[in-house]
Amino acid sequence: MLSSSQDATPREVAIQLLARREYSRAELVRKLEQKAFAADDIDACLDALVEQGLQSDVRFAETFIRSRINRGQGVIRIQGELRQRGVDREIATEAFAVVEEREGVDWFELARETLARRFASPGDTPKERAKRERFLATRGFNFDQIRYALDAL
C-alpha cells in the first residue's frame, strides 16, 4: 500500500485500483482526479494502460454485466448502471451480446428466478401483484419479462 498520494504516480494509483477489480476508464479518471493528478497525466496514464491491456472498458462491461446477472438484475437496470460508470453505449451493447451468448442468458427466466427467490406466489390481490411488479421493475426487467415471471410463478 502506498503511503501517500504525493509519492505515487497516476499509474501506481490506477494499477493499485485495478488489482482489486475492473474499473471503467471514466471511473479511473474520477478516482485519479480526486487524488489531484493533472488531466493530461491521467489521460496519458490511462492510454498506456489500455495499450498494455491492463484497462479495458469492454472487459469491465462484460464483468459488470455478469456480476449484475448473478444478482438477478435486468437489462434496463444494468444499462443504466453502465451509463453511470461512463461506459460507451456501443461498448455496452457489444458486451451484452457477448455475455448473453457465452452465458446463454434468458432474461425471462432470470426475471422468473429473481421473483421466485423473493416471493412464493404471484400475489392474491392486485396490491400484492403490483408489489411484485414494482420489485421486478426496480430490478430492471421490462413489462413482458415481468408478466412472464408472474405467470410462471
Please give a structural write-up.
There is one protein chain. The chain is mostly helical and 153 residues long. The protein folds into three domains: 1-55, Winged helix-like DNA-binding domain superfamily/Winged helix DNA-binding domain (Arc Repressor Mutant, subunit A, Orthogonal Bundle); 56-105, Arc Repressor Mutant, subunit A; 107-152, Arc Repressor Mutant, subunit A (Orthogonal Bundle). Helices cover 71% and strands 0% of the residues. It has nine helices and no strands. It has helices at 10-20, 25-34, 39-51, 57-70, 75-84, 89-103, 107-118, 126-138, 143-152. Helix 2 (25-34) packs antiparallel against helix 3 (39-51) and helix 8 (126-138) packs across helix 9. The radius of gyration is 20 Å and the shape is elongated. The termini are far apart. This is Regulatory protein RecX.
